[in-house]
Amino acid sequence: MATEIHPGLTRRLVRFGTTGLLVTGLHVIIAFSMVQEGIAVAAANGFAFAIATSISYIMNTLWSFSASVGWKTATRFLTVTLICSAVAVGVSGGIDALGGSPALSIGGVVLVVPPLSFLLQNFWTYRSCETVTLRHQLGKE
After folding, report:
1. Residue 99 falls within a domain, yes or no?
2. How is residue 67 annotated by DSSP?
3. d(CA 74, CA 58)
């Protein structure tokens, strides 16, 4: 018998994905704009990442997870962001070390990091907000 996913979980996943796409686009626009103005690409990407991550935190907190902005969620959100950055470097470096192409490396990161980020944010960062247990989210309570 197939288990139906709880509608609240689906809603959060769709909103999380939408937020991710929007802030990724914002990151690209900011970075390209700064490079066009003569800012070094590393500095431009660093600044764009900081802005995109800040907006991602606010959007995900208020919209995706219907939570309140605060130090606890901000600290956890940043922790998950850093963990996912390390995983991205590890996946990319691992695929590269095995002789994989840059496209395969990027694809590996895209397939691993967003789902990992959602799971950590949903079940850890925002666990006390509407998302109490996995059983509840899967509609088994």
Report:
1. yes
2. -
3. 9
* Structure tokens given for 40: 């070094």
Cα–chain center distance at 20: 6
pLDDT digits (tens, 9 = 90+) for 7-59: 889 999 999 999 999 999 999 999 999 999 999 999 999 999 999 999 999 99
- What pLDDT band is residue 139 in, cutting at 50, 70 and 90? low
Tracing tokens 């990091």 back to the chain, one arrives at 113
Expressed as residue numbers, the domain containing 61 is 7-137
Q: Cβ distance 22 to 59 under 8 Å?
A: yes
Number of domains into which the chain is organized? 1
Q: 130 — alpha (psi -120 to 50), left (phi > 0) or beta?
A: left
Tell me the C-alpha distance between 62 and 120, whole Å: 17
Residue 70 lies in a domain: yes
Instruction: Answer whether residue 1 is part of any domain.
Output: no
Tell me the pTM: 0.83
